Structures are given as C-alpha cells and as structure tokens.
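Re-run with default settings, no changes from the original entry. Doing this only to confirm the output is reproducible before filing.
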Amino acid sequence: MKIYTKSGDKGTTSLFDNTRVAKDSLRVESYGTIDELNSSLGFAKNFVEEEEVYNIIRSVQRKLFNLAGELATPDWESFPEKITEEDIEFLEQKIDHYLDQMNKKEKSMFIIPGSSKASGALHQARTICRRAERRITTLAGEADISRDLQKYINRLSDLLYTLARYSETELDYVEFKKQ
C-alpha cells in the first residue's frame, strides 16, 4: 500500500466529508495545530515518570483525534465522536487534583519553565495548545464550531500548564520589580 495519493499535489486536501479545501485554510491550520499538539504530547510523555500523568496524556492524545476530526468536519454535528461536556469535566477534575498538590505560592507566580525534561516538554505542548486555541477561535469567527470543543481546548491548555508546573523539579520564580 502506498501512502501517497497525489491528490494534494496542487495544494488542496480533503476534509472528513470529502470536501476539497486549500491546505493553508484556517480549518486545516486549526486541525493541523491539533496534530502538532498531539505529536508534542507524544514526545512529552516519554519524560513523564508518574504512571497516572502518563495515562492522562495518553487519554488526551486519543481525544485530540476526535477534536481534529470534528474540526475537519464543516457540519461538525454529524461527526460521530464529538467532544462532550464529560470530556471537559475530566480535564477539570485532573486540573483540580494536581493544583491541590501545589502550595498557594506555586500556583500564583510566574516561573521560568523547564527545570526537568518532563516539565519542559509539557510547557512546550501547552504553548502549542494555546496556539491551537487561537486558531480555533479565529475559525469560530468564520464557521460554526462546537462550544464544547472550544471549552475543551481552553481547559486542556490549563491542564497542560498544571501538569507542567506539577512536574517542575525546581521552581525558579520570576519576580517583577515594583516602582
């Protein structure tokens, strides 16, 4: 089986419903950034030592396929595996669990990210997630996008921030000078 189809040689690609669009369309940019995020999480989980955190990342990676598929479907309501309120609640529960394990100072101050390989890789994934959220927000200005999908990507960036902070081995606080 060959993996090349040649159908994209002229700068177009197929969406889930077989509609052809430009490869640089905002919709393709949105789900392409989700793909980049998924790959980044695949890299990050190689540095995670806690099985529970590893499993959370693995679960999120699977959900990102649903999210990308939904973005690749202009009539998103017809996509069979949409992001749901339960998916959002899962992220919120994990955020609350890991934030509860940090002290108040850790939660409220800026730090220089990346005191461990795991935290550095998770912070990288967080920034990709934030970019995906910006792309999806722009797309939502032009097309109908699920509110649950938009909530999910916002909570996911919060979860990745929380897991990255939790994975820091040393907190190097950034303190701003007061005038």
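The CA atoms of residues 2 and 138 lie 35 Å apart. The longest helix spans residues 117-140.
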